[in-house]
Batch of 2 targets.
Target 1
Amino acid sequence: MKLGIVGLPNVGKSTLFNAVTKAGAESANYPFCTIDPNVGVVSVPDERLDVLREIYDSKKLVPTAIEFYDIAGLVKGASKGEGLGNKFLSHIREVEAIVHVVRCFEDPNVVHVDGSVGPLRDIETINLELIFSDIEIIDRRLMKAKKLLKSDKSLKAEVELLERIKEVLENGQSARVLDLTDDEKEMVKGFNLLSYKPIIYVSNVSEDDLISGEENDMVKEVKEHAKTEDAEVVIVCAKIEEEISQLEDDEKAEFLEELGLSESGLDRLIQAGYRLLGLMSFLTAGPQEVRAWTIKIGTKAPQAAGKIHTDMERGFIRAETIAFNDLVETGSMAAAKEKGLVRLEGKDYVVKDGDVIIFRFNV
Ligand code: GDP
């Protein structure tokens, strides 16, 4: 999963990104991840892996990971090429979801680019840049599709959809607000619009507000807006996240408890990403390693196997599957087999969250 962190200057993006890189996952485990100073890789916390490690006495534990892209440099006018404008926008095009950091803290020492703190105005400023860029894309597509429509009537649906999107965008709204059928959703995905990407708003609040747990008016503003877009809101204090990221696991738990928090903001952000993108994890386990793998909800067994290796998808025979809880209750794969709890699933099996799987395949 790739998430892109965006936001106006001085809202706390770098602070949050620092927390991400410091919390950083062991890079040796993720050779597929880009090595780039603007990319931070964090592992997805999953307590089930610790339990499996006990059962299998595994040497290694490999959580699944998320890549955060630091997409700094967005300013008003980016869509017209100001600042790092276009480069910035092309980076957003590559991520699966946007993490939009919004300043919800007052601090006279931290200047705001617009002179005062105003979450809704900030959200609009950034969203408008994405919308402007989308209008260009839609206009181009619309021109082409209309021309072709004369000889190819099958393009009628596309033209109608493009016109609907254009109207919404010109109204200053993100394409996200559109109510679409499944077919239309598929079509829009092909347009790769920035304002259609799933979005999480991160309300960056002060230390005091985070600890008191009280929602300030700025956070309420962000939440109101998020509702209109079906977006998630995660409340964090970037400064506290940065502190947490420097602690070892046991210290981290202690520190969170002292603050009266059950989870770090980063962990909540990761969960929000999972929810928003419809993701889940399945698990593999053995004496060498226990490991979590991220897939979309609804993924079938062969494609899940393909996450591990393309050969496993190509030569897929079956998936020996057990639910995590069944495995824990019986204590071992052998005991679970005796009780008939290990299922032999075929190519149409839809993998469930927490399935522990051994794939059988032809090489
Ligand atoms: P960026 O420009 O969006 O990357 O913002 P930075 O992360 O550099 O933060 C800008 C300033 O705001 C820095 O001085 C940070 O220390 C400060 N800052 C960031 N997050 C918080 C926060 O949660 N509370 C307070 N009080 N200050 C913060």
Note: The longest helix spans residues 119-149.
Target 2
Amino acid sequence: GEIEHELRNAVSNHELSLMFQPKINLATGALAGAETLLRWYNPRLGQVSPGDFIPLAEGSGEILTLGRWVLEETIRQTAQWYRAGLTGGHCRMAVNVAARQLTRPDLAEEILALLTEHGLPSHCLEVEVTESGLMEDMEQARRQLKQLADAGVSVAIDDFGTGYSSLAYLKDLPVSTLKIDRTFINAMGEHQQDQNLVRTVIAMAHNFGCAVVAEGIEAPDQARTLLELGCELAQGFWFARPMQAAQFEQICRQPP
Ligand code: G
Ligand code: G
Ligand code: MN
Ligand code: NA
């Protein structure tokens, strides 16, 4: 299709950019980091949503080229902020890694080489993987994530709870963060059962030694409830929308 055709030249034509969505420490309100989100503007197609082009890129294999660009651009930008003293050990950048990237035998080496090249400490980076991404080739994923974690890169499970997968993988993987999917956060106000579900996920995460990020917080009462339930971190429109690098830099400059 036309989108796939145009996507093939997106990197070389400089059509990609990154947005940064802050993550907030719920107890203190301090900035804890950000998730980088890919954006694509094509002169013929206009702005194309990642919800539309990421699945196509996964199917065509182009996700490897896009994913490599996202990793390098995230690490380059974060290293620049790190050198400027804007993002310390408290501020970690999280990058989405697709299934097709996770099944590559040299993913971890590639990421660690980028960190070295740009002079960014490994603790400043987190990779976000989905449950379905893990399931594609569990053995390879385990190998790559272990190599990254051993080197100090954090591993987060994205969209947690939506994967219909067995939870057994949690005990075998070096996961440090669970991100509760926003559909559960959304439903929390309306149904007691959904609040119980979120409470249970938080307790389970803590039992595995993981921190919890609640995604898609859009209202202050959700933030209050999640703090009461022991959730550490929050990401959502109530706190901040995905923003350009220049705006994120401004936020980093503000005292907590
Ligand atoms: O930014 P937005 O909420 O529109 O993202 C829609 C979807 O695209 C989300 O599921 C998000 O995880 C995914 N996405 C955004 N940026 C990236 C990226 O750099 N890599 C991958 N693999 N997925 C991304
Ligand atoms: O699947 P992933 O968690 O990577 O998706 C991130 C996507 O979620 C981004 O596209 C971002 O724009 C979106 N997002 C972030 N915060 C909120 C929110 O509070 N509400 C909604 N509806 N979407 C959000
Ligand atoms: Mn994500
Ligand atoms: Na998510």
Note: The radius of gyration is 18 Å.
